[in-house]
Each structure stands twice: as structure tokens, then as C-alpha cells.
Amino acid sequence: MRAHALVFRKGLIWSAVSIAVIGVAGAVVGWFVAGSAGLWSAVGGFAAAAVFGLGTQAVAYLTVRRHPVVWVAAVGASTMVKILLVMVAAVVAQSIEGLVKPMFGAVLVLGAVSAVVVDVVVFARGRIPYVEPRTMTSDDGVG
Questions:
Q1: What is the distance between the alpha carbons of residues 130 and 5, in angstroms, rounded to a whole number?
Q2: What's the pLDDT score for residue 2?
Q3: Three-class SS of residue 97?
Q4: Which UniProt keywords are present, listed alphabetically (predicted)?
Q5: What are the per-10-residue average pLDDT scores of the chain (143 residues)?
């Protein structure tokens, strides 16, 4: 597996873990603060955060071996789609009567921010070479 794919996979896995931890913590806090409505509000925020935080990362990982133009187009399109989906989720959430909006919003924002922080850390520490090394042969004028 190429270095790019390893970095994308690591980012996807760690983002999924961080969003899941925030979702579980939000559900527990929501349960104790507002009962079942708080729990389900946190679950809704978790779902929206998962779409926001993992959508583009999954597409980047799945298309990393394709032509660079295909990769850029797929990542750009997935970014636009996920932003639209999160906006639709926020609009739909406004009309749900039993939704605890602060819990929904807190889990959504914390999950999305954690995914961005994981991306920054993973890509800053990722070791992606500028060139791919290859073995030299006698046809290359060596030996």
C-alpha cells in the first residue's frame, strides 16, 4: 500500500474512533441531562458528525489510487455533498419537537472538530515521499 493510502486510512480510522467516543459520551451526558430525548439528540448529532467528518476521508481513501484528477473531483464533490447534507440535517433538526438542540449541536460540532483535528495531526505526522523510489537497472546506465 502506498504512503498516501496509509495516511488516508489512518486518518479515517482515528476520525471514526474520535467521533464514536464523542457520540457515546454525548449520549451518556444527554441521557443524564434530558433523558431519552437528550440521548436521541446526541445520537442525531453523532450521525451528522459522522457524515461530516468521515465522508470526504472515505472518498479520499477509496480514490487515492486513481488518476489525480479523479481524486480531486471525487473529494471536491463529496465535500459539497456532505456540506449540503449537514445543512439539510440542521434544517430538519429545527422542526423536530423533542430534539434537545444544544445536545444535538454540541455533539455535531465536537465530532466535526475532532475529525478536522485528527486530519491535521495525521497529515502533519504522515510521511509521504515526494518521489517514489525505484530500483536501478542496467538499462538506466548503472553498472
A1: 14
A2: 76
A3: coil
A4: Membrane, Transmembrane, Transmembrane helix
A5: 81 92 95 94 93 88 90 92 87 90 93 90 78 66 56
What is the reported pLDDT for 56?
85
Residues in the chain: 143
C-alpha closest to that of 114 among 33, 23, 38, 28: 23
Q: Which amino acid is at 134?
A: R
**For residue 38, what are the contacts with CB-CB under 8 A and spacing of at least 6?**
29, 30, 31, 32, 100, 103
Sign of the CA dihedral with 44 first, then 25, 97, and 90 last: negative
- End-to-end distance of the chain based on CA atoms, in angstroms? 30
